[in-house]
Request: fold
Amino acid sequence: MASAARIEPARSEPARGEPARGEADIAPIGALIGDPTRARVLLALTDGRALPASRLAAEAGVAPSTVSEHLARLLAAGLVTVRPEGRSKFYRLASPQVADALEALARIAPQRPIHSLREGSTAHALRQARTCYNHLAGRLGVGLLAGLLSGGLMDGGDGRHHPERAPHDRLSAPGRDLSYRLTARGEAAFCEIGLDLDAVLAHRPAVRYCLDWSEQQHHLAGPLGTTLADRLFALGWVTRTQRRRVVRVTESGRANLPAVLGLAPDWDQPEP
Reply:
């Protein structure tokens, strides 16, 4: 009888030439994000758009020369990227992972008190319809996914968070426990409104979801969620507003989204 193959113990030392690595050093990144001005700059970029330094200075409430110093530090740390356009430079978050980290911090951070009617209306509008980095969230995002599921355009779940069956899902974070899928009917509907599904489905996975922090239900994310949001903006069914991350459904959107994607006409009404 042949002798059993010898099992080598797992290597605990790095390969020759590789530096030894310990736990993640979150302190430098935490210090960068923890500065109030840099925090406001980063939050201004969480809707996925690229913004010029002048707009970021206004968002942060500081002078352009001051915001430039902060942007230089964020660039050096790899939290933002910059793209020159003519005489201006446009900044954006370096990756979806940076946006995920900011959303996670927002989830555990204390809420600032509302001191004005405008602040209160903005908070309400964010819960109604907003962007979550580069896809749609709030009641609008949750309602869209619910409509896709109820209309048979997608399957794989019911759009709701079931903590007992989804132990890895966390509020305001990419979902891990379910696998939503486009159906043939869904592919036809998305092609009908002009989505390039070949490009979308080339990604793996093409369909992802987030657990919405305000609604505590699922909204569509990933390449499909991003492409759908871009298309709805292009069609003029959803439009951005002057308030950071807040979007609104236009009259054209209210007329078309229920018929095409199954969005409930009363999507913007709180559940009883």
Q: What stands out?
A: The chain has eleven helices and eleven strands. Residues 1-12 have pLDDT under 50 and may be disordered. The two ends are 72 Å apart (CA to CA).
